[in-house]
Amino acid sequence: MSRLNSQILRLRFAHHLIRALALACAIAGSAQAPLARADDAEQAKFFEERVRPLLVQRCYECHSTEAKELRGGLMLDSRSGWQKGGDQGPAVVPGKPQASLLVKAIEYRDEELQMPPKGKLADAEIEVFKKWVESGAFDPREAVPPPKKREINIEEGKQQWAFQPLRRVEPPAVQNTSWPRNSIDRFILARLEERQLVPTAEADRRALARRVSLDLTGLPPSVEEIEAFLADQSPDAYDKLLDRLLASPHYGERWGRHWLDLARFAESHGFEHDYDRPFTFHYRD
Fold first, then answer.
1. Which residues of 178-203 are buried (b: 16+ CB within 10 A; e: fewer)?
2. In degrees to the nearest 10, what's the CA dihedral of 170, 175, 177, 182?
3. Is the pLDDT of residue 50 over 60?
4. What number is the average pLDDT over the span 84-93?
5. Residue pLDDT, tens place only, 168-181
6. Which of 101, 126, 143, 233 shows the greatest Cβ crowding within 10 Å of its Cβ?
7. Which of 207, 217, 224, 211 lies closest to 247 in space, CA to CA?
8. What is the distance between the alpha carbons of residues 44 and 50, in angstroms, rounded to a whole number?
């Protein structure tokens, strides 16, 4: 009988102990809830005041729905964007800055992965991103649907002037009938008169030679070239001047510059990926 009473006492003690533990857990849970909410509020404040402005200023140009050209397939204007990541995988591993591609890129730890490519962030800006990732990468932003691509309307496009069949158009009537030398002049003069403008005075032969030389070669004519043009009173003197300038190597040099300014002058690309340009010298030379 005493053994039975002993077992009953042990069972009652275990029952009370379980109840006490359950009550303690409930009290602890209720006490921690406000702390969790307070922590979320702090993280939200940090994100909105420190992280989001940096993302907008430093990242959105290449990594958002508004980017003209999305780089690396990575979107940083939503939480799901960095979670999914780009061509190399998720950009952020919450709680692990050193394992996050985003941190690796902004720290310039890899020559092949450096963001932003135009220049490294300031140390203080890098620390903001590292602190954000280390604290769990709190991000309240929802994914923004990409803008709808404009569909091509073939029938509407056919109405564009460049696709209209050629047709004869009568030159417009003008008030100053003595100025036009041909039909094209009448179109020009009609638009000038519509705006109550008058053509400027005609350039003399010396000014004409200088203007056409600068236009075609980028260089002023020499004194001898001007004198030769002024002395040539033949009807085709201007045509001969044009032919000489078009045959000049300086004509090719001037207009080649426009191409080279875009395509670069050097034998290599010289930017993020310094690959060779094996045939550049043909154009440059």
1. ebbeeeeebeebeeebeeeeeeeeee
2. -40
3. yes
4. 89
5. 999 999 999 999 99
6. 101
7. 217
8. 10
Q: Single out the residue of 177, 194, 50, 171 nearest to residue 122, CA to CA.
A: 50
Q: In whole angstroms, what is the distance from residue 137 CA to residue 51 CA?
A: 10
Rounded to whole angstroms, the Cα distance separating 207 from 210 reads: 5
CB 69 within 8 A of CB 132: no
Q: Are 106 and 98 in contact (CB under 8 A)?
A: no
Q: What angle do CA 59, 65, 71 make, to 5 degrees?
A: 55
Task: Give the contacts of 196 (CB within 8 A, at least 6 positions apart).
Answer: none
Burial label, 83 (beta-carbon count in 10 A; 0-12, 13-18, 19+): middle
Q: Are 47 and 54 in contact (CB under 8 A)?
A: no
Q: How confident is the model at residue 33 (pLDDT cuts 50, 70, 90)?
A: very low
Q: Are 280 and 263 in contact (CB under 8 A)?
A: yes
Please tell me the predicted confidence (pLDDT) of residue 23.
Answer: 52
With pLDDT > 70 as the criterion, what percentage of the chain qualifies? Answer: 82
Percentage of the chain with pLDDT > 90? 40
pTM of the model: 0.42
Distance between CA atoms of residues 175 and 177, nearest Å:
6
First to last CA, the chain: 114
